[in-house]
Each structure stands twice: as C-alpha cells, then as structure tokens.
Design brief:
three-stranded antiparallel sheet; repeat; two-stranded antiparallel sheet; 2 domains; zinc-finger; transferase; about 45% helix; EC 2.3.2.31; binds zinc ion; ubiquitin protein ligase activity; mainly alpha; single chain; 9 strands
Amino acid sequence: MDSCCSSSSSRYLHPSRSLDGWFAQPDYDNIKFAEYLNGFMREYQSTLLQPKLRYTVLKEADIREHQLQCMTEVCSKLCVSRSSAIILLRHCNWNVSMLFDKWFEEEDDVRNKLGLFRKVPLVDRSAGSFTCEICFETCDAGGDLSISSNFCGHFYCIACWATYVSESISNDGVGCLSLKCPHPGCGAAVGEDLILSVLVTKLNGDADKAKHSQYLLRSYVEDSKGKRKWCPSPGCDYVVDFVGGYGTCDVSCLCSYRFCSNCPEVTVR
Ligand SMILES: [Zn+2]
Ligand SMILES: [Zn+2]
Ligand SMILES: [Zn+2]
Ligand SMILES: [Zn+2]
C-alpha cells in the first residue's frame, strides 16, 4: 500500500509527458486526491492503533476516597488549607496535574480569580464592637459572635453568616462550594471551614451540612468536564470514570444498566 501510494503520487508530481509537454502542468486534481487519500489512510491506521476508551465504575465511598486523595495532595504540595484545595480543584475540574500546572504558572491570577487573596487586610480587633453590615446589630468584634472569610476583613455576625450560607446551599447547587464574601465587590472566597462552623450554630444546620457534603460529592462528577458521568439508570448513584483511551465504548454499570459512553450527559439528578 505504502509503495503504491508513494509511487502514484510521485508520478503526479512530475509534469506529464504529453506532446505539448513543453507547457504541460502537473495534474493538480490528481495530486490533491492522492494527498487526500494518503491522509485518510494515515488517520484510519492511527485510529486502529489508538487504545480504546476505558472506564471504571465508582461508588460513593470510592469518590469520597478519590476526593480526599486529591485534596491531601493539593494541601501538601501547595501548602493551602483543605477549604482552598476544594475551591482550586473545582476550578480545575478535579484534575490535580492541571491545577499544579496553572498554579505554578500563574498563582496570583488563580488566587485573584477565585478570591483566595494573599494580602488580607489587618483588622483591629481591639476596637471592641462593630456593626454587622447585614443586620446592623452591634456585635463584639473580638468574640465568637463575629466572623470573616479567611481572605478578607469583612466581619458579619454569625447569625447573618449562617443565613447567608444556608441560602446559598438551598439555591446555588454545586455553586455553594464557590461562595464569596457578602460584601459588595469583595469577591473573597468563603471556604468549607467557615461554612461548616457557622452551620453548627443554626437550627437544622445538620441538614444543610449534609446537603453541602452531597454537593462536594457531586462536584467531582459534574465539574469534571465529562470525564465522569452519573449512570443514567434511574435511582443508580454509581459514577462512570473514563480513565483513558479514545473514541466511545459501551459502558456496563455495576447496577447492570448498559449505555453508550457518547450518550448525552445526564446532569439532572
Ligand atoms: Zn448580622
Ligand atoms: Zn469580604
Ligand atoms: Zn448504574
Ligand atoms: Zn450513545
């Protein structure tokens, strides 16, 4: 095949020897076709050589374990808190190596974009009291009644924080994992640590905590840019994780449901 193609194309690359050969031009149409055919065959052959798409099926415990591994790696390598790691991983589709690349290339940009500000203004806690910008109650600035994001100096009373966090969990879906400071234009990140600590003070805070934890789980799938998919079978909570290879494949879930990897993404749970 190879010799056949190359000999035929080299023939067309020379001016044809016709009677009016002096003015003869290469046969461009045939050259184009030979090149097209060559390219097509090369592509076809490389498709045959490409490894097929592979997957594993994950249960909730597997996902939690994978997430924990990702977070632990990010925390130790980048020297950031678990709360920051969640925000960073979500931003990079839970792809640790992509996150490291971005971070080491443009840490400041990433921090600014996500509100993980490095220069947090010093707050004078000796002032004694302050007025919460949301409820306008006077609070004890140094006490347990006030709190701010780790990345800015805007203090609110705990009751207002709890309401703010709870509303986000009810309305923002997975977006509650990227909550920002309520101060207009601030944009500082509000991490898992603050969210969980203010929910402790709230009536039915445990329900919100459980929802938040569920969103963290969902983020691993829904923020993965299609690398992971929920099994489309109704009531099945397993996740298909495509771990390598190319093309499409037939997936067989642990629940015995079978589907095609190329089917439209199931996002509504
Ligand atoms: Zn308040
Ligand atoms: Zn702020
Ligand atoms: Zn399933
Ligand atoms: Zn399909």
